[in-house]
Amino acid sequence: MKFKCKKCNEELVRLNLSEEQKLDIYVLMQNDLRIFAEKKLIDYCTLTQNEARIIAKHLNNRNGKCSECEFDELNEENTDCPNCGAFNYNLNEPVFNINFCSQLEWSLDFQNVENETIKYSVKEFWCDGVQHLPYDINSLLYKNIEKHKEIITKAWIGSGGDEIYEMKIKFGEQSLENYKNNKSLDECIPRNNENPGWIKLFMEDKKIEVQLK
Ligand SMILES: [Zn+2]
Ligand SMILES: [Zn+2]
User: Fold this and answer.
1) Following DSSP, what letter does each residue of 16-83 receive, concatenated?
2) Cα–Cα separations (whole angstroms), residue 49 to 36, 38, 42
3) What is the pLDDT of residue 122?
4) Same structural domain for residues 62 and 124?
5) What is the number of domains present in the chain?
6) Cα of 35 to ligand 2 centre, how many Å?
7) How far apart (Å, rounded) are the C-alpha atoms in residues 45 and 146?
8) Given this model, what pLDDT does residue 62 score?
9) Cβ atoms < 10 Å from Cβ of 132
């Protein structure tokens, strides 16, 4: 089955990628390595260079956002942009993504870290970012989350928000369920003190652990 882009009139094949292959392409696109994504597509789907180039042109690198215009509410895979007509593969991305990482960043409340002895010194702490591409990219695959129930990434934390911490994000029942169903993890961040102690900070080791619901 083929799609046709209403904007450039190119014909496009349906991509049948495994979860692992999809993740590879996602990571390359997140790093703006479109040429490498094309190479992978040639391997995975047995395409010519030209076919791969045309496909890669229709891979949007932020889920929901059209690759050709500003429209950012595309909500399914293989879809035409209602604004400009361009076809977008709009491949599902892991729900541990840039949006969730900003939500997490804003929700870290250092007034309530568990460790009493460091409570005072971290009051002024804040977080200036959580990296959405973890150290081990394969930890984004659901089968690995199900097994290890955690993702380890880095975060920028400190009184200047600029020290690099290793951040372990632990999955609870609800976040595992959401991940499995490709549903946003935003609601799995404990809010308003509902789970005191969901953040553990180890300042000397520059490590932080957060427990999702
Ligand atoms: Zn097109
Ligand atoms: Zn568009």
Assistant:
1) ---HHHHHHHHHHHHTT-HHHHHHHHHHHHT--HHHHHHHHHT--SSTTS-SSSS-----SSSEE-TT
2) 12, 8, 7
3) 77
4) no
5) 2
6) 22
7) 28
8) 87
9) 19
Separation of CA 61 and ligand 2 centre (Å):
13
Residue 166 near residue 207, CB atoms below 8 Å: yes
What whole-number distance in Å separates Cα of residue 169 and Cα of residue 147? 14
State both tokens at 179.
Answer: 């991940």
**87 C-alpha to ligand 2 centroid (Å):** 8
- How many other C-beta atoms can be found within 10 angstroms of the C-beta atom of residue 40? 18
What range does the domain containing 53 cover? 2-88
Rounded Cα distance between 203 and 61, Å, is 35
Cα–Cα dist 74/59, whole Å: 12
Report mean pLDDT in 10-residue bins for the chain, 213 residues.
Answer: 93 93 95 94 94 94 93 95 97 94 93 71 86 96 97 93 94 98 96 84 92 97
3 state SS of 164: strand
**Ligand closest in space to the Cα of 60:** 2
Query: Does 93 map to a domain?
Result: no
